[in-house]
Every structure is written in C-alpha cells, then in structure tokens.
Backbone:
C-alpha cells in the first residue's frame, strides 16, 4: 500500500468513526519519520481509544499489521504509528492544550477558539 493509499484509508476510517476537526499534515519535506500526520479529536476518552482500535484492526485486516497504538488505556491522547502515517487522536481539552498543529506550522482557528474558552 502506498503512503497516499494508507493516508486515504485512515482518513476514511476516522470519517466513518465521526472524528472531529480532522487535520492532515504533509511531512514529506519536513521530517523522515513519516510522510503524513493526521490529527483528530474524539468526544471522550472512550471514543478516542475506540477510534485508535478501529484503525489498528482495519490496517491489520488489510495486511498492514504493523500499526501500533499507544495511550489507549487513558484515552486522552492516543498515538497510532502506521509507518508512513502517524495519527494523533485527542480529547478536545488535551488537543487544545498541546496544539501540535502549531509545532508543524499549521493554523487551526477552531482549535485557537477552543483553547481560548478552556484556558
């Protein structure tokens, strides 16, 4: 599976799971750790963990069994490493606090508004 196909598959899984505020960052010329990064929000810890599990299960079913998820037990911030695509799944408050999009030079006005309300 090409990095682009993997990205499209993960985006589709997240859309089916009703992930909120989905942001995709192209990392090709920024770092060698992956080609793409996806950042998304789930409404609760349980939702975040469930979305991560769905990604891992679907990738394994499609022969991409190397995907690993860290942080599922807490469900505040789950990292799914799918090789060419890295996925960060957050609860809303945690995403607003860390604002990792800004670290990669991506503006997210909805996240700024939420952070203003929370902090």
Residues:
């Amino acid at each position: 599976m090409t990095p682009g196909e993997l990205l499209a598959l993960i985006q589709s899984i997240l859309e089916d799971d009703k992930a909120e505020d989905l942001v995709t960052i192209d990392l090709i010329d920024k770092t060698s750790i992956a080609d793409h990064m996806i950042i998304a929000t789930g409404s609760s810890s349980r939702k975040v963990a469930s979305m991560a599990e769905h990604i891992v299960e679907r990738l394994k079913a499609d022969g991409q069994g190397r995907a690993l998820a860290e942080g599922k037990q807490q469900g505040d911030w789950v990292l799914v490493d799918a090789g060419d695509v890295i996925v960060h799944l957050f609860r809303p408050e945690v995403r607003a606090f860390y604002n990792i999009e800004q670290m990669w030079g991506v503006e997210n006005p909805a996240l700024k508004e939420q952070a203003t309300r929370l902090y």
Remarks:
- The radius of gyration is 14 Å.
- The longest strand covers residues 20-26.
